Automatic annotation (TrEMBL):
It is found in: Secreted. PANTHER family: INTERFERON GAMMA. The lineage of its organism: Eukaryota, Metazoa, Chordata, Craniata, Vertebrata. One of its GO terms (biological process) is immune response. It comes from Takifugu bimaculatus. Residues 169-189 are annotated as: Disordered. One of its GO terms (cellular component) is extracellular space. This is Interferon gamma. Its main location: secreted.
Length: 189
């Protein structure tokens, strides 16, 4: 428990101190993820088993490939969150809501909020044709209905969302640098 609290405090501190333009987690989203982690709990052994759901190793350094890969990761999160929503009990009659129904409604609302944020990010910055994602078949094989995968995905979401929101800025900076270099070489000759 102390380890989990330390990790959460560390994430919050990192988010507060390391705010970079275009690379941030909205405060409400961070709170919502923390609330969801309170419901979707797994053991530390399952969480820290050394097998992250989304590995980024083979694509490091190639921003175009990272954009495509991140697009596939965001689509995978879309599927995971939709599966989590499907697994929630259906709401009962509104006249006799129990505290369990209210908790389920709150979970549903929180999952929908996170799903909306992921969808908006994907549509705004990662709207790539489906054929580019065919090479990323392993992401499609993620077990969306596995509670360990769901909880680990929530733990990794802050890091993934931060990376996803910063990649478009990196690409834009690279384009500007190339334009400047091209203009400088044209002027120099």
């Amino acid at each position: 428990m102390v380890t989990m609290v330390t990790a959460v405090v560390g994430w919050c501190l990192c988010l507060a101190v390391c705010h970079v333009r275009g690379s941030y987690i909205p405060v409400e989203m961070n709170k919502t993820i923390q609330n969801l982690l309170g419901h979707y709990t797994i053991t530390n052994k399952e969480l820290f088993d050394g097998k992250p759901i989304f590995s980024k190793e083979p694509l490091s350094g190639n921003l175009q490939a990272e954009m495509i890969y991140m697009s596939a990761i965001l689509q995978t999160y879309d599927k995971i969150l939709n599966q989590m929503l499907k697994e929630l009990p259906t709401p009962g009659p509104t006249t006799a809501q129990s505290s369990g129904d209210k908790g389920t409604a709150e979970l549903r609302s929180q999952l929908n909020y996170i799903l909306k944020k992921i969808t908006n990010l994907r549509i705004q910055h990662y709207n790539k044709p489906e054929q580019l994602l065919k090479m990323l078949q392993p992401l499609r094989e993620v077990q969306f209905n596995n509670t360990v995968i769901q909880s680990k995905a929530l733990w990794e979401l802050i890091k993934v969302y931060r990376e996803a929101s910063s990649l478009p800025n990196k690409l834009e900076k690279r384009r500007r640098r190339r334009r400047r270099q091209t203009q400088m070489s044209i002027r120099g000759h």
